[in-house]
Write a structure and sequence with these properties.
Elements lengths: L1 H24 L6 H11 L2 H9 L4 H11 L5 H20 L2 H32 L6 H55 L3
Helix pairs in contact: 1-6, 1-7, 2-3, 2-7, 3-4, 4-5, 4-7, 5-7, 6-7
């Protein structure tokens, strides 16, 4: 039960920490790209950089990197934006694999506890001489099944949390891709 309890604490910590991170990363007003577009079209690159620096999210950091490369060939700007996107994606997905692992391992630890409990129950039965009381057998099985239930609960919650976070990160990645395409298209517009 101790490893299952530790797994549940780790899973809850990772879920809350990642949830807060994804929420922070998803905060940018709908007018963000419109403001950037207007300033770039006016030639106010520094103003656009200032707007980007006011937001602490992946899209703003990608656009800011692209703005800092203006004057370079378009392929260089695209590569810079993509590199920042890869770094941001790595930050967003940090520890999600641990959450996925917990969702698979917790039920297995529960089943292991059940098997160990059943072995203990059978050892108790083997050591008992004469008639075996149903209470002796039921206590062993009861203790064994508790670990299965605990492991399944932790595993299911971790699995749901993992899938929720993966979906949120996926939506954020789509938003990042859309914004980077919009930014590159902006740079290709005739002035």
């Amino acid at each position: 039960m101790i490893p299952i309890a530790i797994s549940s604490i780790v899973a809850i910590y990772i879920f809350i920490e990642r949830w807060l991170t994804v929420n922070r990363a998803d905060k940018s007003p709908d007018s963000f790209m419109e403001n950037i577009k207007g300033l770039v079209l006016k030639g106010d690159i520094n103003g656009a950089k200032i707007i980007c620096s006011q937001f602490d999210n992946p899209v703003a950091r990608m656009i800011e990197k692209g703005l800092s490369r203006i004057g370079s060939p378009l392929k260089t700007i695209e590569a810079s934006v993509e590199n920042v996107a890869k770094i941001e994606l790595f930050r967003l997905e940090k520890n999600l694999s641990v959450l996925a692992t917990i969702s698979g391992v917790a039920p297995m630890m529960g089943f292991l506890g059940t098997v160990m409990g059943m072995v203990q129950a059978f050892i108790s039965i083997a050591q008992e001489e004469g008639t075996i009381s149903p209470k002796l057998l039921s206590n062993g099985i009861y203790e064994a099944m508790i670990t299965t239930v605990a492991g399944l609960i932790v595993g299911i919650i971790a699995y749901l949390g993992y899938n929720y976070l993966v979906t949120r990160v996926s939506k954020l990645v789509h938003k990042m891709e859309y914004s980077s395409i919009e930014f590159i298209d902006l740079l290709q517009e005739p002035r």
